[in-house]
Input
Amino acid sequence: MPIEWLPSPEDPEAYPVALLFVHGACHGGWCWQENFVPYFRHHHFRAHAFSLRGHGARKDTESVRWCSTNDYLQDLDEAVQRSGSRVILVGHSMGARLAQLYVARHPEAVKALILLAPPPPFGIVPSVARLFWRMPLAMLGNHLGLTWRYVSKREATARRAFFRPSIDAARLRRYIDAMGDEAAWAYFQMFSPLLPWEWRAKCPTLVIGGRKDQIFSAWELRCTKRTAKATGAAIRFAPHDLMLDESWERPAKIMVWWLKRKVLKAEGSDDGLARR
Output
């Protein structure tokens, strides 16, 4: 099944290595296009985005209910192949978990890993329990209906789960309209913990989260950082959707700094990573 592919335009000044953005549950490649993709292209990175099956432009035409993690990993592998080189994977939320699983299976294909608001390595049971406490009717509807629309398609619950309370109503409505459902099977697979060789990538890793994230707590972010032996940062006042928040430039700046100092510079020009 072909993915929705959102490639970076040609830039003769770009670094040879490419960034590949992997969206999270209910989102699509569109969530990177507003802020992160233009920002990284401005800094001469080839920045590609894509949408998993049944997301993005296909959210209303393809059912995702019984898609599995393996289905999504096939989509991610297609995106990596289209990128044409070893990539730096940038995964958000569920996309971060997919990125970790992909690196464990294909370490030769990934140069570095950036995890934004990632699920903790021990699974999402505590996170789901907190969401049940904070929005019980919406979460009950999700689980009984095998859907995530009771959270992603309603203003009150989407605001609480993904964004800061002060988000502009028009922006919130635009994001909700772009969101879709999520696969029940892939969601339930996230209840299980990662295996030791899955939570610790054999490549440089950066972990960034928001201190006001209502899905994954600051403590869970620290657990992810420690188990991955990663560099980490927590953005003050930032919610779950770091790339769409008004403070989006803060994690983006950290990412650029880390990539240039810890990945590109460390590899050096012998690996073709010095910008031409």
Summary: The first helix runs from residue 30 to 33. Strands lie at 4-6, 18-22, 46-51, 87-92, 110-116, 205-210, 231-235. The chain has one domain: 4-271.
